[in-house]
């Protein structure tokens, strides 16, 4: 899968998504782009999954309008040490997520 990590996700976490093509928004010049535009850019660039810690995304956008699956990592903080334990479940979710679907992965 082609996976995009949102700005709020620590960049080194990309190396934990083994077996997937992963980019971070800062690496492709999409820093500070608002969610609606970011989702549109991601879909246009062929990303299949967006990984974020933004729990409000589902209330800010009509996600069914975007052909991308969204995984929301929910931990006590967005520090890598708090998010890494969620990766095994996130990897399972990546395999089955569909476009327009949002799945929360919680600690």
Taking pLDDT < 50 over at least 5 consecutive residues as the criterion, the unreliable ranges are none
Largest beta sheet: what is the strand line-up? Answer: 2-1-3-4-5
Based on Cα principal axes, name the global outline: globular
| Total helical segments | 4
Estimate nothing, just give the exact number of structural domains.
1
Number of strands: 5
How much strand content do the residues show?
Answer: 15-25%
Order of helices and strands: EEHEHEHHE
Kindly report the average pLDDT value: 92
Major sheet attributes = 5 strands, parallel
Distance between the termini: 23 Å
Rg over C-alpha atoms, rounded to the nearest angstrom: 12 Å
Explain how this protein is built.
The protein has 107 residues and is an alpha/beta fold. It has one domain. 26% of the residues lie in helices and 21% in strands. The protein is built from 4 helices and 5 strands, in the order ββαβαβααβ. A 5-stranded parallel sheet has the order 2-1-3-4-5, covered by helices on one side. The longest helix has 10 residues. It is globular. The two termini are 23 Å apart. The model has no long low-confidence stretch (mean pLDDT 92).
